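Input record (Table S2, row 326):
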Amino acid sequence: MQVLITGGAGFIGSHLAEALLDRGETVAVLDNLSTGSIQNIRRLQQSSRFSFTEGALDDHAALDRLAGRADAILHLAAAVGVHLVLERPTAAIETNVLGTHALLSAARRYGCRTLFASTSEVYGKGAAVPFAEDDDLLLGPPSRSRWGYAASKLLNEFLGLAAHREFGLPLTIVRLFNVVGPRQTGRFGAVVPRFVNLALGGEPVTVYGDGAQTRCFCHVSDVVRALLGLLDEPLATSGEIYNVGSDCEVSIRDLARQVVARAGSASPIRHVPYDEAYAPGFEDMRRRVPDISKIKAATGWSPSLLLADILDDMIDFEKARLAGKG
Ligand code: UDP
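Output record (uridine-5'-diphosphate complex):
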């Protein structure tokens, strides 16, 4: 099978590319390296079944050429990170909506099996956890930039399902909850690599707000397994949305404590008000827990790694990186 991965030089995309190559597929990556990096795919470039094109989704000629050769497309290219979304909201919304529009047009031209990454952000401020795929969604007002990201990803979901219904595109959507693992960087805000870096550097670990907000963290290897499982079930899963994530909830305050302890660090934990961390009026989600029964029923998938394993893996990766071996 020939697979095109948009955003394949990013954190999750590069792990997917690696797993697909390992099982004998041919992989083409399209990435503009805005938040991904060549370093992530350096090792993959040694394979004759791997190719890399540096470009964005608005390069319609490149997209058409790559889609024309692909049996399947994994669409992960998107604006990433809360800070980017707050600082450059126009670029974030345009990247997501126009990029996905271009991608879906190309996929339709060639009838490619398509799987694309949406986000748990679409559940917005909903408080009724766990979140199921058919739940009503509660977003904040457009005066708060954060919700523009959620709305742009939600529009992508509508576009994707419309292409499935109207034109028979074999398309599946995954709503990714918090994913963690090697190659993830804290530069775009992700909390686990940030806490690990701060703890290893002996600096105060910054918990935003009161730290009682919760998240569920899933290892990237489990997420890759979920996505490949869905890719392999085109008939049963086309036209469907699946939550992908862990359902083990941890508060951010407790996460900070665990990271400091597992890293053997003496870092203090420092609370930082949201207004200072992001922007005045920033709205966070208090709890975010997926209902993962739908993907379990469709493919038998469930996460295998626990938070302690995930944190240890991240700490080992960061130690190796800091020592120049990563
Ligand atoms: N967070 C924090 N300190 C940091 C970075 C993030 O307390 O240095 C919090 C953030 O406010 C949120 C949670 O950790 O409540 C998860 O943040 P992240 O940006 O990783 O993902 P989100 O789930 O918000 O998309």
